[in-house]
Recover the amino acids of this structure.
C-alpha cells in the first residue's frame, strides 16, 4: 500500500475547493442529503480508489461500494460511491474525478502493455521511471503498482545507475571496469546498473560485468545482437530496454529476447473517462 498523508490528499482537494462550491451555496442546497457515484466508462485496470476514499472521507462523506486498486472492472462499472450532504458531495466531485481519471488512465495503459508482454514472456516485467509529470510522483506510483508494474527508481538515491553523464566527469569515461569496480566498492549492498547508448558501449559495459545493463533507444535489431553476445560476456547480467518504449512500440521488441522494459509512457496515457452521477437519493445511482 502506498501511504498518502492527510496533507497530500488535502492538497489535491484544495486545488479546487478552498472557497467552497459557489453554485451549491447560491442555490441553498448544501444541507440536502445525497449520494455520488463514479463509473469507469471504458473499463480496465482501476486505480486511485484508495486515494479517492481518503479525499471523500476528509469531507465528512461516507464511502461505500469501492473497488480495490488493481481490480479489473467492466465498462460502466461503478468504482466508488459516497453519501453525505450536497455541499460536501459537490466539493469532492471534480477533485476526486480528476484523481480517478488520471490514475485509471495510467494503470489501464500499463496493464495493456503488461498483457502484451506476458503473452510472449510470462515472467516479463515493466519498470516505470521517476520521470513522472511534476507533482504526480506518488499518485503515479500507486497507479503503476496497481497495474502490476514496478518502480524503476523511486529517486536518485535509491539505486546505483551509471549514465554517460556520470562517465563524462571521469578521467577515462570509457573505463567501464574501473567505474563499476568503484561503484561496487562504495555501494557494496547495491546492484550496479549501467546504461549504454550505442552497441559499442553495450559490449564494453558487458565486459565489465554489471548486474543490469540498460540499452537506451536501441533498435530491435541492435538489441537482438546484444542479447546474442551477452551470455558469453556477462552471463549473470540482466538486460533491459529503455527509451521510447510505448504501447505502440513494444510489439516490435518482443522478438529480442529481453524481458525487462523501462518506460515513462504510462504517465502520459490518455485519462480514463469517469462518469460522475449525483442525486438527492439513491434513485438512478
Amino acid at each position: 500500500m502506498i501511504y498518502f498523508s492527510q496533507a497530500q490528499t488535502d492538497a489535491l482537494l484544495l486545488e479546487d475547493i478552498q472557497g467552497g462550491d459557489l453554485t451549491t451555496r447560491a442555490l441553498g442546497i448544501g444541507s440536502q442529503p445525497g449520494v455520488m457515484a463514479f463509473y469507469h466508462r471504458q473499463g480496465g485496470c482501476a486505480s486511485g480508489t484508495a486515494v479517492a476514499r481518503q479525499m471523500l472521507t476528509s469531507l465528512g462523506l461516507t464511502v461505500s461500494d469501492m473497488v480495490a486498486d488493481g481490480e479489473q472492472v467492466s465498462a460502466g462499472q461503478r468504482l466508488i460511491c459516497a453519501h453525505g450532504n450536497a455541499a460536501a458531495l459537490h466539493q469532492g466531485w471534480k477533485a476526486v474525478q480528476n484523481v480517478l481519471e488520471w490514475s485509471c488512465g495510467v494503470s489501464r495503459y500499463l496493464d495493456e502493455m503488461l498483457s502484451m508482454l506476458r503473452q510472449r514472456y510470462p515472467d516479463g516485467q515493466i519498470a516505470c521511471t521517476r520521470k513522472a509529470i511534476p507533482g504526480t510522483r506518488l499518485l503515479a506510483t500507486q497507479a503503476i503498482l496497481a497495474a502490476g508494474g514496478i518502480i524503476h527508481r523511486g529517486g536518485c538515491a535509491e539505486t546505483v545507475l551509471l549514465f554517460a553523464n556520470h562517465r563524462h566527469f571521469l578521467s577515462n569515461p570509457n573505463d567501464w571496469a574501473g567505474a563499476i569496480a568503484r561503484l561496487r566498492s562504495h555501494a557494496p549492498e547495491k546492484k550496479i546498473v549501467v546504461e549504454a547508448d550505442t552497441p559499442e558501449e553495450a559490449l564494453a559495459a558487458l565486459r565489465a560485468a554489471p548486474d543490469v545493463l540498460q540499452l537506451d533507444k536501441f533498435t530491435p535489431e541492435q538489441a537482438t545482437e546484444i542479447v546474442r553476445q551477452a551470455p558469453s560476456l556477462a552471463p549473470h547480467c540482466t538486460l533491459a530496454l529503455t527509451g521510447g518504449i510505448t504501447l505502440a512500440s513494444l510489439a516490435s521488441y518482443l522478438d529480442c529476447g529481453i524481458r525487462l522494459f523501462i518506460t515513462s509512457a504510462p504517465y502520459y496515457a490518455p485519462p480514463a473517462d469517469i462518469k460522475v452521477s449525483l442525486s438527492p437519493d439513491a434513485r438512478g445511482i
